[in-house]
Specification:
The complex is a heterodimer of chains A (about 425) and B (about 170). Helix content of chain A is about 75%, strand content about 0%. By secondary structure, chain A is an all-alpha fold. Chain A is globular, with a radius of gyration of 22 Å. Chain B is about 70% helix and about 5% strand. A two-stranded antiparallel sheet of chain B has the order 1-2. The longest helix of chain B has about 35 residues. Chain B is elongated, with a radius of gyration of 20 Å. Classes of the chains: A mainly alpha (about 425), B mainly alpha (about 170).
Chain lengths: ~425, ~170
Amino acid sequence: MAWLFPFAVLVGTILVLMGLGLPVAFAFFVTNVIGLYLFFGGSIGVTQMVANFSDAVSTYALAPLPMFLVMGSLFFRSGLGEKVIYALDLCIGNLRGRLAYVVLAAGTIFSALSGSSLANTGMMGSLMVPEMLKRGYKPHMAYGPVLGAGSLAVIIPPSSLAVLLGSLAQIDVGALLIAGALPGLLLVVMYAALIFAQTKIDPDAAPHYPVPAVRAAEKVRAVAVNMIPMSVIVFMVVGTIILGIATPTESAGLGCAAVFALLFVYRRFSWSVVWKSLDDAMKVTGMTFLIISASTTFSQIFAFSGASNGFIQFIVGYDLGPYPMLLMMVLVILLLGMFMDQVSMMLITLPIFLPIAQQFGYEPVWFGLILLLAYEVGFTTPPFGLLLFIMIGVAPKGTSLKTVAMSAAPYIALTLLLILLIVLFPQIALFLPNLI
Amino acid sequence: MDRLFAAIGKLSLALAAAAKVVLGLIIVAVVADVCVRNLGLRPLAWAVSATEYGLLYAAFLPMPWLVHSKGHVFVEFLRQALPVRARAVLEKLVYLACIAVSLYLGSVALSSLISAAAGGEYETRSFDMPKWLVFLPIMLAFYLSALEWLGYLLGRDTLYTLDPLEMEGL
């Protein structure tokens, strides 16, 4: 049990420091310094850590992340996102709960155009929630679809979190990005069925309201003008990877170029929008990459001190079998997701989970997608799910965390159901990557 | 004192602005590389390495500004369980820990930078990169972050007041 001491010191220190409110990157730095002095030769180890910062982040595989962020931010900040919502609003007929379907459809399209769940939820929440509440929608019918559709960006390509997971876990980033497409669309169908069931069971949850009749020609025009051109971006990002024309980094660059082209076509280009988009990307990239540079050393100390190997032998000794082990990992992520953001959670769990996954021979893309979905759930689980707070920020004053969290609950249940389906039918995740 | 911290803030903002320019240049380099390759022209051999070093600068240059603007993600699940007075003491301890680790890692980066410059060390990728340029953003980031944390320690602001809509993440 010699591994237990380094395991307890490293995992205990990082969790306690984070829990006490130290910014995640700094919690990693402090833990690393303690770990390096205890297990890695002291100051020589610290010098090595600083030298390794460059290797941790100056990796071409990480380049899509800031580019997807710029792409999504350009899309939202320029007002192109609002044009999509306008077109969807015209096209979706006089259904009961029509605004919930508009949100779901918009969330799906936004997810294919931006890799950020926070940006998606922020945009749809601020635009759609006030309108839904004004139309008499009950809170769960307003918040739930926004939270569900917002978090789709985690799996529908281009997902920034998938790029991060793929590059850190040495999983083929292109395959992991593409693997999310089919499960993402399946999740959309399940969410639509949920909205249908909710409005069927309680028609007052989303009151019917008269919608002005729109001629078919006007609908076609709205789609042609506001939505079809967006498919260029989707093709540049997803299509070029599937066709093998571009690597994920190149596809992200092409996606950015396509958004720029659309800004000129729609006369929405301005240097102020570009600068603000770069600002958005700079903040998230700086925050995320700093945590990556810190956590890379954490992983190395974890392995070097024997904590990683000892823990694996300990777990394998229980002879749990691959599926109960997978279930345990998902449960750990769900638990951590209540308290942590996705990036921190990923960087703490990967050094522990990856060797276990290799030991059990999990298919990497399949395993990566299951992890992504589990991380996604953490966005909407109380008390610290980030999307819940975004929603409270755009909801009327006095809206409680409980109300918002309860609205998200059925969507969480469906995501967990999807994880189960992917475990039972791996082809849901692997069909598209196998085509590459 | 106000002038000093205003100057520190401006310097942090300037580094963040430089990081934005770097991100813009990364996009240009990647797109240009894809275009010339698909047009059958000679690929830009420097583009991949330049992008990689750009990512290093994009990681560290924003660090002090993110401290200034509360952009570093944090969680508080243990902190919130504490009584108010204990939280206030803990807050100061957090700032002290951040200052200490920033100064320590900044000094390690500085000594690595000096040693790399004195030894004329280079990193060899598709072009030779002076090693001191690798340590430069790291050193700047940690030292300037220590000063930004000092502002918090002196009570100029608190880290733990943040609008949910201002949170950063993926």
